[in-house]
Amino acid sequence: EELFSSRLKRSAPMAAGRAIHQLLRKKLQSHSSVPPLLSSLVVKQGQDGFGNAGMKSLRALALIGAGVSGILSFATVSSADEAEEGLACPSYPWPHKGILSSYDHASIRRGHQVYQQVCASCHSMSLISYRDLVGVAYTEEEVKAMAAEIEVVDGPNDEGEMFTRPGKLSDRFPQPYANEQAARFANGGAYPPDLSLITKARHNGQNYVFALLTGYHDPPAGVSIREGLHYNPYFPGGAIAMPKMLIDGAVEYEDGTPATESQMGKDVVTFLSWAAEPEMEERKLMGFKWIFVLSLALLQAGYYRRLKWSIFKSRKLVVDVVN
Description:
It is built from nine helices and four strands; from the N terminus they run ααααββαααββαα. By secondary structure, the protein is mainly alpha-helical. The relative contact order is 0.10.
C-alpha cells in the first residue's frame, strides 16, 4: 500500500504536466496564423527547447496545486467534523489523575453542593444513594439530616396503601421528573441525561464536562442559533438546550471558597468523577500493593535462579584428549 501511494504521488505531477502541455499545444495550433506544417515545427522546437526546464516547472506547479487543494480539503473536512462532533476540549490538570493521587474530598463536598443547588432541578443521579456520601464528603449524622429533608413514596402498608415517609440513608437521590415525557415537556423537547456515569459515558469525560459547562459564548458571525438553544462549541452541533448555569456567585460555599465559574466547574466535575468511579482510590491502593508484592517475588525469583544455576553456568570443563 505504501509503495502504491508513493508511485501515485510520483506519477501525479507527470500526468498533470503532460495534460497542461497538450492544452498549450492545442491552443497554439488553434490560434496560430502560420501553416500547420510550420506550426508543428514550432511546437516541436518549443518542446525541444522547453522540455527539460518547462516540464520541471509544470511538475512543480502541479505539485504545489495538489498540495494546496489537499490542505483546503483537509481544512474543510476538519471544520465539518468540529461542527458535527463539537470542538476538541482541552486537557486539564485534574489532581486525582496521578498514579497514586486521590480525590480532593473537600472538592467533592463542594461539588455535591453545586449539584444540589444548580443541577438537581433538571438532572438525576439515579445510581447514587445517600449512604454513598458517608465518609466521603459528610459525616453519617449530616447525611441522615440531609436525607430526612426529602419525602419518599413507600409501601404498601398493612392496609395496602402507599404512603410517604422521610428519606433515609438507603434511599437514592430524588428524581427531578416523574418520567421522560414530563422531563421533555419541561425542557422544550430536550431530555436532561442522568449524571451518575456522565464522566464515563462521554469521550474524554472530565475534560468534556468542564469545557461544556464553562464554554458558553456568543455565536460567531454567520452562525445562527434557533430560539431556545444556546451556542456552545464543545457540544455536538454547537447548539445546546441547556442555558449557561455556572455564574459567579451562583452558590455560597460552606467553607468560604470563592464560587467562581471555574471553581464551581472543577468541583462539580470532581463530584461527578467520584460518582462514576467511587472505587478509584481503593483500586489504586490495591494496584500499588500488588506491584510491591510482585516486585519482592521477582527479586526472590532472580536470587533463586542465580543460586540454582550459577554453579552450572560458571563451571569450567577441561577435556583431556589422550593421543
